[in-house]
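so im writing up the methods section and need the PucR family transcriptional regulator record in one place, dumping it here so i stop losing it
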Amino acid sequence: MRVAELLEDPELRLRPLACRDRLDRPVRQVFVTDLPDPSRYLDGGELVLTGLMWRRGPYDSAPFVAALVAKQVAALGAGEAVLPVPDDLVAACDRYGLPLVAVPRETPLSRLMAIVVRRLDAEAGALGDVPATHAALLERLPADARREFRRRVLGELISYDRRHRGELLATLTEFLACSGSWTVCARRLNLHVNTLRYRIGRIEELTGRDLSSLDDRVDLLLALRAE
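--- predicted struct ---
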């Protein structure tokens, strides 16, 4: 698939911001990150999605984009859940030749990722039924194996919610949908940020995962989808 195909979907409401003439690059994988330098996790050909939590100021954009270009990613999708895509990121993408699209707040990065995964999986199936992403690999597992994976990752969390009528699972789902933004997540859940921080702390204790770690976020996201 190509990023240009996603722009044709009116429900996603994606907007091209930089290097529009290069949006026909093929996408081989999708990768979500808020690391300032995610290059060690990239193989090339990815559509990189970010909530921009790595950006502390205008000086951060050029190094971030340069790292992506060095790994030959296909394009960058910047989420606008918190703020509009900053001009310095657009300028950096233009400078380094990296296609950039804005992902509006109405389109959670998790939803866009799921759509890309399904399309890549469908294409892989047409080419010989070879999964193209980690999410697609998970879907290839037998239902019993998926349920066991979910139990091992989220079992304590689910049990806690049942015993205490908690809302930790829902909180985790929303937190990941907000790309780890404390402010946006607290607003959507109508919580004080301190209450949200307490809940996330309990989630980390019960799951043994660190929500500041990309690898742990991926584990939790896949477990949520492994029903």
